[in-house]
């Protein structure tokens, strides 16, 4: 009985350990762009979260502070179907100004797209931040883009869920097999520029965690991104579990 008990405990322990490991890609499966595209997992969570934010932005502001309840932002919901046929969405937030303002693009962390933006201070700063050194053009437009549900090279429970595929580093805009997250971000930035008066020399990337890694990588591989300022970013080119690490 003692022998069987040890086997049982050992089996459970191995199962728990294996359950925490990310998906492993053999080195011979690596591509010129790093890992193959991450597997998509159908989910409406990303769409629902950004639609909810866009339709209820002023309620979100009120929940942050009484002061922000007096700030009325305008929101515009944008939609797109990527090369995988998946529906994507973004929310463009503006302060309703006709002035030429910078555009800040924000990419949410994995697993927590809806609540995260309200914890960053970016909503509060939209009407007060000076990114132009011009007192007549205070504030910025904020573009919040939703990721999609895929597998990740992160430990459990973040091995699958909402996020960004920064492991498949195909930024070739002429390739139909381009990373669909890159394609989506490209589309929404162009859409935002056409929707509001944008200072095209001041388009910035930001993000949190997995979104921060994607923001850094996108900024490095995209013309006309002025800068990236991110929080808690894993290395987008050689994270600890990435078997197809690359040099930037």
From TrEMBL:
Keywords noted in UniProt: Hydrolase, Signal
Q: Where on the tree of life does the source sit, at the highest rank? A: Eukaryota
Q: What SUPFAM superfamilies does the database record attribute to this sequence?
A: alpha/beta-Hydrolases (SSF53474)
What GO molecular function annotations does the UniProt record carry, in alphabetical order?
A: hydrolase activity
Q: Which InterPro entries match?
A: AB_hydrolase_fold, Plant_Biomass_Hydrol_Est
> Know the name of this protein?
Uncharacterized protein
* Species: Didymodactylos carnosus
Its lineage reads: Eukaryota, Metazoa, Spiralia, Gnathifera, Rotifera
